[in-house]
Give the backbone structure.
Amino acid sequence: MSMDPDTPEPSGGPKIPKLPDLKIPKVTVTRKQALTAAGTAIFVVVVAVIGGAILLNYTADQQVAAFSSHVAASEADLFLVSGKITVHMRTPTNDLSVAECDAHMREFAAIARYGRDVTAYHRQIVAADTIPEAYTGAQSAYVRALDNLNRAFTFWSSAAGAYEMRDYAAANRNLADADEAWRAYAAAIGDYDRELRAAEEEGAEEAGESIPPPPA
Amino acid sequence: MEWKDVFPVIAGAVVILAVALVVKPALLGEPIGFGSRGLVPAGDPPAYVPPAPVPTATPFPDDGKVYTRNFRWTAIDGGVQTTQVTVPEALLRERRETLRISEYFAWGEYAFADADRPILEDLAREIAPPAANPDEGYFRLMNIVFFVQQIPYDKDDNTTSYVEGALPPHAIYKKGGVEYPKYPVEMLVDGRGDCEDAAILMGGLLDALGYDTVLLAYSDHMALGIRMNEFNPYYAKYTPRYFEHEGKHYYFIEGTIFDGYCVSPDSIAVQGKPNPIGDTQDSLPSVRSETPQIVPLRYIPEPGEYRIRPARLPGGGA
């Protein structure tokens, strides 16, 4: 049995209506329905925009808070290092025997090691922080400060090693290099403070707040 | 609800998760997955580890062999004294085997060596016994000075300067000859020494009495500087010479001064003579013309910068 390709209907089966006979159902949209749909769409967009902005802001705040807590942890450990240094530097050395001088320098070496480890540890954490763009300058300056401090403590270690070898000229040279690294550290802390203030002022301007002047 | 209705929801959730956890981190260079750049697995913060104590050296046995030396010298009151010193042979042997450093800053280590200290304290007590009257302090000081000044002078190059009759293995050979800064016990056992040996011995003895001293290094000589606030005795027919170091006055003391008389006809060592504090009239021309390098006997390298500056915290922290 042959089939006409224009009228594909097997003989004897159900009758398939021809395409021109199909009717698209008519959708009647009332004005109220249209307004409701448009309103809903606008509402969804507004909620998405506001929600996104809040989420972004929240993320930025979280990042700054994390950065702040890492700097705080670093400062707390550096405070402990500073305490050790202060006690060591205040120890009178006028009446020490040779063995006591050597012990004094071994303690100096231990403080140098401690300082080097602390700065390396916190540098790794602070440098890994993801922070808002406004704070990248402050982060970079703080990392630079830790790097210089780490360098200074490394020179202290070398000076202590040279003292142990009785190479006093090398010990003096290392201490001179350490002094230079300490000065670079102080400069980096100054940069950090400046960058931090700029970032906070930028944030305050966006929020319409004011930042108090830095302490004299 | 049928499976075909749930599938698009699950597919959508998978796409969102893939974008959030893989695509976005990959585009922004962040770690892929749930990790955050702020959470670096760094372990515990480092702790201070104090230096390990160094075991104290074994003291030299009291019943071992000793060198006994007698010194005849004229005290500040004009009386001739004889002072006996004993030094363990093992200590001298150890000193001879100790490496010498040509740098002046290392020489204080010889003056204040721990093993030599008890011998110097005993000697200082014998030469300058403690007195109840504080006015005796000057006489005690001058007796120490006079004692050392009267030990015969002999050059480091001469084998006669050493009890073994040979140069020590760690003598430093320089262009102008031999340099061998002696530990105090070496000068006492040898019974002679040159300018830096006398300055080192005198510095060790005066330290035992509580005086602060420095080495005064000239181009061809070494003397001692003693810290005094003011020294201007009525009898002095000279202006006492002193040098300022870190705001303190150190008065010149000659350790070796002599008229050229040999100790004995068959010796090349010359007999030293007493000389007052601050007097440079009979000293070498370099002493009268040069400003010496001042070398502290206790040398501890100290950094100039060491203050950690507190950093302000982001977000208004202190």
About this structure: Chain A touches chain B through 74 residues (CB under 8 Å).
